[in-house]
Amino acid sequence: MFRRRDATETRQARLDESEEFLQVICAGFNLDTRTARRFFYDDPYFEVNQRWGLWLRHWSEWRLVSVLTAVPLTIRIGSRAAPCYGISGVTTLPEYRRRGLASALLRAVVDALRAEGAPLAILQAFDHKFYRKHGWETVGYLPQIRLAPAQLPRYNAPPLRRAYPDDLEAVIRLYDACGARYTGSLVRDERRWQYLFWNIPNLWLADGQDGIEGYLFYDFVDSGWTLRVREMVWRTEQARRALVGALAVNEEAVKAIEFDLPLEAWQRLGISGWQSPPSDPHTPIYTIQVLPQLMARPVSCRVLLETLLAETPAPDGFQPFTLAVRNGNSGDGETLSLTAQGGALLVGDAQPDLFTLALTPQTLALLAFGTFSVPELHARRMLHAPDAVLQTLELLFPERHPALTPIDYF
């Protein structure tokens, strides 16, 4: 017996439909509406967000049953800043789940963003397998380091002070000068800085002779028993010691200090993790777990490659090729060429006389972000090309170890 499929409509929600949109979010994520309403309307990107919904018609009535939000962002990939959309708040009313409605909404939004010329979409997924079916891939992994406050050194350094509104510009200047910005981190515009400054209550500063020399953003998780470092930036050794020492004195207040940051940043922080070596060689000094995190999907492959490679000098031994990106599930795809003109790389229309490199959107995402090296992708049988093309790809897309730290979550 065949089941009649109800008619659907997918579009951006109007401003006067915001409350209906909010109700679906709360029902889908089991949130308290009164509490969620304040965060929903106070979102610094509320005015520029694209709030997409899928309406289902049953008889003569239309009902909003599935929603997501597309947030305009800019993400760092190597030395380039790539505009993108962050996909968040994907949910469907519980009674309408397992009908493919969220999948239909995702496909429609990707098509709309492609028509807009967006190069990339990113998200923080609860179910990586679900999004992988729709062209996304896990490109970023976040190391999480935990240790007890007693394991941190108590340096003899001046105490920190709380930040005041007048300190915002100095904090931004310090970040621009000394903040290590990694592939996968967001480029922070004024909206995002204002949000961080006013919504993360724990911002402490290390003063020096020449003004602010370091700052520490943190919050609490695990019912307040874990102090999570959101970001630490310093420009002097004195400031580094003051920031670490401030964390060390929390021994009676919390059970653990958590650092969610790339391993290079952890090494740069210079924390050994012990006051004296443990007597038992099987006792860990501290624990590190690496969590799958940021997912990405090329939307317009041509625009993405132009963003990452425009005006890049063609490397020695450059081998031009045609790139065919195909999504096996939906059948959509793009074909283009990567050649050189005047010594610079050029992304253009497909040239059938060149070798054609066939990729899935997932592999292109891994390649663009540098999640794995080209030899690693080749060994995993995700790249099949002549050696000359593989060598060219290795020069154009180096390994980068992307990570989106919690302070940049959207």
Number of strands: 18
Low-confidence stretches: none
Examine the coordinates and then state which fold CATH places here, giving the name of the CATH topology of the largest domain.
Answer: Aminopeptidase
Computed over alpha carbons, the radius of gyration is 24 Å
Fold blueprint:
Layout: E1 8-12, H1 18-29, H2 33-41, E2 50-58, E3 61-77, E4 80-92, H3 101-116, E5 120-124, H4 128-132, E6 137-138, E7 141-147, E8 161-162, H5 168-178, H6 190-199, E9 202-208, E10 211-221, E11 226-234, H7 237-248, E12 256-260, H8 263-269, E13 287-292, E14 294-298, H9 301-309, E15 321-326, E16 333-341, E17 344-349, E18 356-359, H10 361-369, H11 374-379, H12 387-396
Features:
410 residues, Aminopeptidase, Nonspecific Lipid-transfer Protein, Chain A, 3 domains, 7-stranded mixed β-sheet, 31% strand
Summarize the structure.
This protein is of the alpha+beta class and 410 residues long.
How does this structure look, described?
With 410 residues, the chain is α+β, with helices and mostly antiparallel strands. It has 3 domains: 111 residues, Aminopeptidase, CATH 3.40.630; 150 residues, Aminopeptidase (3-Layer(aba) Sandwich), CATH 3.40.630.30; 96 residues, 2-Layer Sandwich (Nonspecific Lipid-transfer Protein, Chain A), CATH 3.30.1050. The chain is 28% helix and 31% strand. The chain is globular, with a radius of gyration of 24 Å.
